[in-house]
């Protein structure tokens, strides 16, 4: 297992970062797969909005809808893109169907190079939906060749979120469908969203199908449209943190350092806290990462300030 502590960004979809062990890993390709009307575009718009909040550079390529329609849809859910910039419509680029091949094979790689030279800190790239590109290259072999090339350019530039249409009738699902196979195979992470129309909590759901380089929660979680954040994943059934031995080990070492410092503090109360924290860290194997979370809070600067009073 690699010892790299991946840099992550917040997805902008409430609950998703929890399921993904802290957020989307930078410079990866992430797919939102779902049939028509499941909320893929809303996902993409929330991701864009989060980027604006964080001062990221953004590149939203729409292969279907006009910028004004997308911004309007976001607004109807309380995602106020217009509040973030004077030229909201310039944030989204509509790529017309007759220009897709030219765009993907020539313009996009050139754009990637240009942005790279401008030393942009981080870019969020959105392809919504990828499906028309797949139609241009009907053979899987060709799709694989073209997408590999595009992803290579894009992931060097930033963190990609693409939406992929699942070709099923309402309520049906087939994550292995031929139409979605290549993008799923080439993506670093795949999030499957469904609208089963069952009514109740699990009418719309979300499940992480895969996530390279990092562990993730395995369940199926309720997904809701909520005015403000746009989309919210209900993670109340998640029990504890995901136990990732590598991440935990890095956190363990950092916390041990913190505890050692604290055990030398002239305030006896703090030395007691250090002792408790040390015991908890020593027992960490017993119930996984929960002790680590606890020590993190216990030895937090603000908490220690309170102790002083
Ligand atoms: N406030 C809301 N409450 C419940 N459902 C909503 C709300 N706003 C939008 N929707 C649903 O979300 C759907 C559209 O979501 P979105 O455009 O994100 O889906 P999509 O997967 O991108 O669809 P498409 O396949 O058309 O691209 C609408 O058809 C509607 O059913
Ligand atoms: Mg859409």
The main pleated sheet reads as:
9 strands, mixed
CATH T-level fold name of the largest domain? Rossmann fold
Spatial strand sequence of the major β-sheet: 5-4-6-7-3-8-9-10-11
**Quick check: average pLDDT?**
88
**Given the helix and strand composition, which structural class is it?**
alpha/beta
Give the number of domains.
Answer: 2
Q: Ends: how far apart?
A: 44 Å
Q: What is the count of DSSP helices, taking H or I runs of 4+ residues?
A: 11
β-strand percent reads 15-25%
Rg measurement, Å: 22 Å
Number of strands: 11
**Ions and ligands:** adenosine-5'-triphosphate, magnesium ion
CATH class of the largest domain: Alpha Beta
Helix share bin: 40-55%
CATH A-level architecture of the largest domain: 3-Layer(aba) Sandwich
Low-confidence stretches: none
Large-scale geometry? elongated
- CATH H-tier superfamily of the largest domain: P-loop containing nucleotide triphosphate hydrolases
């Amino acid at each position: 297992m690699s010892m790299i502590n991946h840099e992550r960004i917040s997805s902008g979809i409430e609950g998703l970062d929890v399921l993904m062990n802290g957020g989307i890993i930078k410079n990866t390709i992430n797919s939102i797969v779902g049939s028509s009307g499941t909320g893929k575009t809303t996902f993409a718009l929330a991701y864009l909005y989060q980027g604006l909040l964080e001062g990221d550079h953004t590149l939203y390529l729409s292969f279907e809808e006009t910028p004004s329609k997308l911004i309007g849809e976001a607004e109807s859910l309380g995602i106020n893109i217009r509040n973030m910039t004077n030229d909201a419509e310039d944030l989204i680029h509509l790529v017309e169907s007759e220009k897709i091949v030219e765009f993907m094979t020539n313009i996009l790689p050139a754009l990637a190079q240009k942005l790279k030279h401008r030393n942009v800190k981080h870019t969020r790239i959105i392809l919504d939906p990828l499906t028309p590109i797949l139609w241009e290259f009907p053979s899987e072999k060709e799709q694989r060749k073209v997408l590999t090339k595009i992803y290579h350019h894009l992931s060097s530039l930033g963190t990609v979120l693409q939406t992929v249409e699942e070709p099923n009738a309402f309520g049906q699902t087939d994550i292995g469908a031929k139409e979605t196979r290549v993008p799923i195979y080439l993506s670093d992470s795949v999030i499957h969203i469904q609208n089963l129309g069952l009514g109740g909590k699990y009418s719309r759901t979300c499940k992480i199908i895969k996530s390279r380089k990092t562990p993730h929660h395995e369940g199926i979680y309720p997904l809701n449209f909520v005015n403000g954040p746009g989309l919210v994943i209900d993670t109340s059934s998640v029990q504890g943190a995901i136990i990732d031995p590598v991440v935990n080990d890095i956190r363990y070492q950092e916390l041990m350092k913190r505890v050692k410092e604290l055990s030398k503090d002239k305030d006896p109360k703090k030395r007691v806290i250090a002792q408790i924290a040390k015991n908890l860290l020593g027992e960490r194997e017993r119930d996984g990462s929960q002790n680590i979370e606890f020590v993190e809070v216990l030895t937090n600067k603000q908490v220690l300030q309170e102790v002083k009073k």
